[in-house]
From TrEMBL, chain A:
It comes from the Bacteria. The keyword Transmembrane applies. Belongs to the binding-protein-dependent transport system permease family. This is Sugar ABC transporter permease. The chain crosses the membrane at residues 7-32, 72-93, 105-125, 157-180, 201-226, 261-281. It is a multi-pass membrane protein. InterPro entries: MetI-like (IPR000515), MetI-like_sf (IPR035906), UgpAE/MalFG_permease (IPR050809). Residues 68-282 form the ABC transmembrane type-1 domain. Its main location: membrane. It is found in: Cell membrane.
Length: 290, 298
């Protein structure tokens, strides 16, 4: 009896502090943000219950939808930029020679660099006066291409997508390499005996065989688009004129720049809902395709 | 669900290394071309970082006058100036304090909980595990506002704790799954022997389980280090006090790019980046696999 009591005490001590910290700092905030979303609150003074007004206002705000569209641009840039590059690289880099390991390490390197630093480096690359990009264009006689990459609303979403792609290819590369190596060699030998050519081999064997991994990668691209906050915040802050606003910068600016805590909480809740819908929706879509 | 974490400890890419069949689809005569493309691609990826380090030794005139040249004289004193004038020294210290504290907390609680969930049975075990999984699907930035409001009410905003606790909270599920998966693969014999020897649960945990789990804990240590050291969003929202600012937060002051001291800024950026790159160069394989395993769950 005392023994099982000791076991129970050990289990309690092993679980409760972890559950406490986890619940207080991860789970409770989600419930609270849904709740605070019902209030008009400036952070100080009294808060006023206003029902669904904050949610309705966000959904009726064109800037909110532009931010949503910008998030989708990042998702598209990841899916159609990162995944094909990573897939092609993974086919070439499956072996483990010294050279291949070097390339793999190089591609992965930006992952360990703080996104603030990546944002600042790309800020210098795009800088209208001192930027390396415009400097290069000038040198190569492409002066007409020179522009304010981060300031021009017609192109700046694509400009900020480039570092997102550049920095995040590494994990997809490693993921695909691992998946390709799990394809059994009999499948491949059979394909070869049947005389499958290279391109066919890729489309008909590799892609279907690692389809599950590709699905995971697409979900990662979707959830990763929300993490682009740091990079965009450093490079443009969501500007100019909210042209590069993302859902996360929209939430940040409304809460901490104009101090609308209730509204910011409502937007936070919408971000969670949107990302859940996108992730689940993409999985349903891909299941049907299969 | 615990099987996810085991990815970090499988042999991974190495396990089928040297299997010749897979290299066939690319004929040898194209090999040099694909290698050339690969080399260019790798250099394209590395160049921005190389540019950063080279720029950090230049003068301001050289920075925008000759962006691609090597520094004419290597100004090591840029680093000294960044450390002192730009206040990078205290920020570095803050980053060390916050990162290490969060890692210790994550490792201790994560390993303890992983031991409990992988070896013991209790009511609501399924529920507890699904809670940890659910948390990993939450976009981290959507918790900024409610966390800010909550910590403001607790009065821990603008303290080290306002970073350490949320860092640990978000990393704990990863730690539990990775260490838990590792422990599941380890035979129970040693623990049982230790229990029979009368070590008790705590003695067994500290003397047998924790030492056994060191490889998995090392993965969590490295991933946690990179994540906490590089974090910007939490520090931006929860820290206001100049004296408590971490490295990424201090750097963001320079991000505007107009009218700043470029040699100072690039030196400060290099100081922030060097520790993570050194860690990366030492633990590459572990980091690659660990990050993939961690992000697959996130």
């Amino acid at each position: 009896m005392t023994n099982s009591g000791r076991l129970r005490a050990f289990i309690a001590v092993g679980l409760l502090p972890t559950l406490f910290i986890y619940a207080v700092f991860v789970l409770v905030p989600i419930v609270w943000s849904a709740y605070y979303g019902f209030f008009d609150w400036k952070g100080i003074g009294a808060s006023k219950f206003i029902g669904f007004d904050n949610y309705a206002e966000a959904l009726g705000d064109p800037i909110f939808w532009r931010a949503f569209k910008n998030n989708l641009i990042i998702v598209a840039a990841s899916i159609f930029g990162q995944l094909p590059i990573a897939l092609v690289l993974s086919l070439i880099l499956r072996k483990s020679t010294f050279f291949q390991r070097f390339v793999r390490s190089a591609v992965f390197m930006p992952m360990v660099v703080a996104s603030v630093v990546i944002g600042m480096i790309w800020g210098y690359i795009y800088h209208p006066q001192i930027g390396i990009l415009n400097f290069l264009l000038e040198q190569f006689g492409l002066g007409s291409w020179i522009r304010d990459w981060l300031g021009d609303p017609s192109i700046n979403m694509y400009a900020v997508s480039a570092p997102v792609i550049w920095a995040n290819i590494g994990p997809y590369l490693v993921l695909f390499i691992a998946a390709i190596q799990n394809i059994s060699s009999e499948v491949e030998d059979a394909a070869k005996i049947d005389g499958a050519v290279k391109s066919k081999w890729l489309y008909m064997i590799v892609v279907p065989m690692i389809w599950d991994t590709i699905k995971v990668a697409i979900v990662l691209c979707i959830s990763g688009s929300l993490k682009a906050f740091d990079l965009i915040y450093i490079m443009t802050g969501g500007g100019p004129a909210q042209s590069t606003e993302l859902l996360a910068t929209y939430m940040y600016n409304n809460t901490f720049e104009v101090f609308r805590y209730g509204y910011g909480s409502a937007v936070s809740t919408l971000i969670i809902l949107i990302s859940m819908v996108l992730v689940l929706g993409s999985q349903l879509l891909m299941r049907r395709k299969q | 669900m615990t099987t996810d974490g085991s990815l970090a400890h499988k042999a991974g890419p190495a396990q089928n290394a040297g299997r010749p069949a897979l290299s066939r689809p690319f004929k040898p005569k194209w090999a040099w071309l694909s290698n050339l493309v690969l080399l260019i691609y790798a250099l394209l990826t590395l160049y921005p970082l190389l540019w950063l380090f080279l720029s950090s030794f230049k003068t301001n005139q050289e920075f925008f006058g000759k962006p691609f040249a090597l520094p004419s004289t290597w100004h090591f004193d840029n680093y000294k100036r960044a450390w002192e004038i730009a206040g990078i020294g205290p920020a570095f210290l803050n980053s060390v304090i916050v990162t290490l504290s969060a890692i210790v907390l994550t490792l201790f609680l994560g390993t303890l909980t992983a031991y409990v969930v992988s070896r013991m049975n209790f009511r609501f075990k399924g529920l507890v595990m699904s809670l940890f999984v659910a948390g990993m699907l939450i976009p981290i930035h959507s918790t900024l506002v409610p966390l800010f409001i909550m910590m403001n009410e607790f009065g821990i905003l603008d303290t080290y704790a306002s970073l350490i606790l949320p860092y640990a909270a978000f990393e704990l599920p990863v730690a539990i799954f990775v260490v838990g998966a590792y422990l599941t693969s380890v035979p129970k014999d040693l623990e049982e022997a230790s229990m029979i020897d009368g070590n008790g649960y705590w003695g067994t945990f500290f003397r047998v389980v924790a030492p056994l789990a060191v490889p998995a804990m090392a993965t969590i240590f490295i991933l946690g280090f990179l994540r906490f050291w590089n974090d910007f969003a939490f520090a931006l929202v929860f820290i206001n006090n100049q004296a408590l600012k971490t490295l990424p937060l201090s750097l963001s002051v320079f991000s505007d790019g107009y009218g700043t001291d470029y040699s100072l800024t690039t030196a400060a950026m290099s100081i922030a980046v060097i520790p993570t790159i050194v860690i990366y160069l030492i633990f590459q394989e572990q980091i690659m696999k660990g990050m993939v395993a961690g992000s697959v769950k996130g």
